[in-house]
Amino acid sequence: MSLQVCETFLSIQGESSHAGWPCAFVRLTGCNLRCRFCDTRYAYEGGTARSVEDVAAEVQDMGCRRVEITGGEPLLQDETPELAARLAALGLTVLVETNGSQDIRALPQQAIAIVDMKGPSSGAAERMDLENLERLRAHDEVKFVLADRSDYQHMLALLPRIDADRNVVNVSAVFGVLAPRELAAWILADGLNLRLNLQQHKHIWPPDKRGV
User: Fold this and answer.
1) Which CATH fold would you assign to the domain 3-204?
2) What's the average model confidence in pLDDT over 150-175?
3) Is 159 exposed, middle or buried (0-12, 13-18, 19+ CB in 10 A)?
C-alpha cells in the first residue's frame, strides 16, 4: 500500500507550540470536510502515490529535526500511522495535524497529535469527534481557528473537557477575517490559559502561497 501525497516541503512551522521552528511538511491528499475557510483546497484531490519508505527518506534528507504530517486529513489514509512511526524512529519530532473528525488513537504513541476543533463558522462543527478530547495524551495539543464571536463561544463550551495545564490549547483568528488583537482582547478579558497563534507562515510569505 502507498500514501497519496499532495506535496512535501521545508518551511517554518506557523502554528502550535512548535511555531517558529524549521519544519519539514508532508501534506497528504484527501479530506472528508469542506470547511468554509479552508486554505488548502488544492489538497482535496490529486497527488502522487508514494511508499512510506520513500517519503521517510525524503524527509530525512531535508535534515530537519521536526516534521508535520498534515492534509487534507492525514488520518483518512491507512498508512499514516506507519509513516509517523517511521519518522519518529529516525529521531524526529513528529506532529500530525488532524481536522478533529478522526479517531486519534490510530496514531503511534511517539507522534504528537494537533487536533483542530472546528467552530460553527467552518460549517463542520457537527462533524467533530468530541471523544478525541478525552483521548488526548500528555503531549498532544488542541487547535481552534476562530472567525467570530460565535466560534469563540463554541470554544468556551469545549474548554472544560480539556486539561489546558497538560495539553496546550492553541487559538488563532481566521486570517483576514478576525483581527488577532480582538481575539487577544477576548482571551485576556476572560483570563484564559490559551496560546495565541498568528499563523506565522502567512506573515512571512503571501497568505495564499503554496509550499511554505
Assistant:
1) TIM Barrel (3.20.20)
2) 97
3) middle
